Amino acid sequence: MKGMRALTEDLAAQETAREQAYVDKVYAQLSLSSAAAQALAREGHDRGRLGHEGGLVERDAMVFQAARRIAQLDAAHEGLVFGRLDLHPGLDPQPRYIGRIGLRDAERDSLLIDWRAPAAAVFYQATAATPQQVIRRRVLRSDGPRVVGVEDELLDAEALEETGADLPIIGEGALMAQLSRARDRTMHSIVATIQAEQDQAIRAPSKGVVAISGGPGVGKTVVALHRAAYLLYTDRRRYETGGVLIVGPSGVFMRYIERVLPSLGETAVALRSLGEVVDGVRATRHDDPSVADVKGAARMAEVVRRLARQQAPGGPSEFRVFYRDDVLVLDRGLLGRIRRQLMSQGRRNRQLPRVPGVLLDALWRQVRGERGRERGRASFDDDLLGDQKFLDFVTAWWPPLDAPTVLAWLRDPEVLARVAEGVLSSEEQRVLAKSWADLPEHPLGRDLTVQDVPLLDELRYALGDVPERTDDEASLADTSLLEGGHDVAELMTAADREYAPSGRAWAPPTHKIDDDPFAHVLIDEAQDLTPMQWRMVGRRGRTASWTIVGDPAQSSWPVPDEAAAARAEATEGKALHEFHLSTNYRNSSEIYAHAAAYAERVGLDADLPTAVRSTGVEPRVVEDAPDLEAAVREAVVDLAGRVAGTVGVVVPAARRSEVNAWLASWPELADDAKGARAAIDSSVTPSGEDRVVVLTGLDTKGLEFDGIVVVRPQEIEDESQTGRATLYVVLTRATQLLTTVS
To answer: Which region among 38-47, 74-83, 604-613 has the lowest average model confidence (pLDDT)?
Structure first.
């Protein structure tokens, strides 16, 4: 037996060395390609010194192409070559090597096939039942440029015998090796271990909506990210020009996934949490569930529509002027009719250039005196437009408005009651008023909650852009209505011009309100989106293709039918392609059996995938702990000592600060939890080295850890109407060890 093991190890070492030689050749070509791209960039800069416009155009084009190629080559270094296909000799006598990008040698012969290319599809689609001319599929496991091992699958034993090919079979399967690896603080690509059902979703038609469903741990998120990379590869001009928007539940989640696409050679993507979808806004704080349920409801769209039509608080309700022999009056009733007339013709801010003329019309109709009529309308307009009193009235009665300012009007309970009458109950109005009581006059960013952002976006669309003055806009420029400290450009906020990118890497250029900036929209944890969030995201994908990822059983939104209607409206008219993933690759079978039993016990209609990996370690349940801190400390230290990767401590939201303080005081975790003082909440990012982190149940969405300690699970369940679904999510986050402390 020892001799057989030694022989196997020798054979594995020989095959690893053989693959290393080929990988070295590929990396040498990668260096040459990088040098060529750098040279192209230098040449491009030199073209810009030619002194004519053509040289500048050539410079921009060359530098852009070179920069994109350099970024692609730099991103590909980690695990550049990961696969090999040995095909039937009659189809291809040479092995095909599969990698993160495509590379050719100096003779233009293929060294490496991009994993998204049609020639690489068989790497993922071939099975023992349908080998598709593949005899052996090999996965190369690497640490940077160094090959550390190989894992083989023999797919066609009969063809191996018929051809007499010398193809030794090494290892126990690449997938299981990948599943056993320790987790760190970021998601990694699965490009080397994509399974057939996952590959079908990745390579689905580019048009319409691709919906990817399945229970916990089936790889929905990472499959969707690989799909984004695949779309960019197959139609780069469309998706790079239009942009790809990826929306996730939280900043924590977005930081977790942000390395996947660059590792696949893609950077032309905007990664945004739900609090960052609106350009220039970054909200991280969440409302309490009772408040969030009201702000997310579809009927809030009507509340916002009414709010956008309200007169600015403190604005004038009447205007009087003596002209020749007449007293001209714009009273409350007349102004109300004019307001309704303007509102019926378009968004509020879009009417700014029309306001002076409409008011002058209403005043001119009141001129009855002979002296006034004799002078005529042109003279009348000139006289009033030279009257500072009239100009001040126009500016005060119909000012340019931005969405943050108007949202802050809801601090006034009377305004809220007026716009919510017949739409929201008195109790719903009360909880909203309380949540907005301390809102500043111009809230933006940290002053807003994640649930406020869709309301802000709804207001931006209801109000419209503030028109910018141009020389040929005589109606504004000649009247000087907005001069004297009231220039449109000065009063516009970032929300009404064009926002700068929200700080998330790889964001494409921003756009005006009515633009449809994205060619593809990817929504992860879609089951959690509120109707108002669906409206917000839908505006950014009216003509886009979509990838929608979710599991209804994990939903934190309490009215799924209402959300489904909003989702249908956002994707209306688009063909639907549905894919269901059925294999749980994350959890051990012991952990998932525990989570599935909970789901069945509390009546969740859960999609229960099959867990393919067993550790032999059952979840541990600590009940009735007399000293909660001591019990949690023992559980966390135990898990941190037994796993090599990350440990998540999941707590009720009300206990987050308390448990953070505990971890900071435990000397056993000094090295593992340096960032526990900051912890993971919805706004703080711990350092990349922290192994032990504190999260709430909602923070865990989309994440995974080697070990999970759940503190007071009943309290997590009791936090909201959907607390049972949240706790189910928490119980499915661990890959190896799970402990609950009651």
So the answer is: 38-47
